[in-house]
Specification:
Length: 144
């Protein structure tokens, strides 16, 4: 793990990288799950919770069903951030996280609609990169 030489705290990049239970870098499916969870930190719980609950209500949701749930989740995401007075940067990074999450989530609408858009391991790489980038910019005070 990388540490900031001044404070000896983990750097934003090290903190955002997915790790296993013992602080060892995660691999494969576990890393994808942890990266999706890191993305969820950027998405209001109302939107992600709604989507996950709604999609789990169906045994085998069709692409049309996933599209409707995607749109409803997106509306919740925007409404929650707007009601909280989020800046344009926060709104943009939240939308970006939501779109990437939909690409890497097994039952995500974008993953179902475009299954080969981010082939393994690109979904993991994009999710880790995005999460690390946003954590770094937020930690530096560039995103408020």
């Amino acid at each position: 793990m990388e540490f900031c030489p001044v404070s000896m705290k983990p750097t934003a990049a090290a903190a955002a990288a997915p790790t296993g239970a013992e602080g060892v870098p995660a691999t494969g499916r576990q890393a994808l799950v942890e990266s999706a969870q890191n993305l969820l930190k950027h998405i209001p719980g109302e939107a992600s919770g709604f989507y996950l609950m709604a999609v789990d209500s169906f045994d085998n949701p069709s692409l049309g069903t996933l599209a409707v749930l995607f749109i409803l989740g997106f509306i919740l995401l925007v409404a929650v951030r707007w009601a909280a007075g989020a800046s344009r940067w926060i709104m943009a990074t939240t939308i970006g996280a939501y779109l990437i999450w939909m690409l890497v989530l097994d039952k995500g609408f974008l993953h179902a609609a475009f299954p080969n858009l981010l082939p393994d391991p690109m979904g993991l790489i994009v999710a880790v990169f995005y999460s690390t980038l946003i954590a770094t910019l937020a930690g530096a005070g560039k995103i408020r």
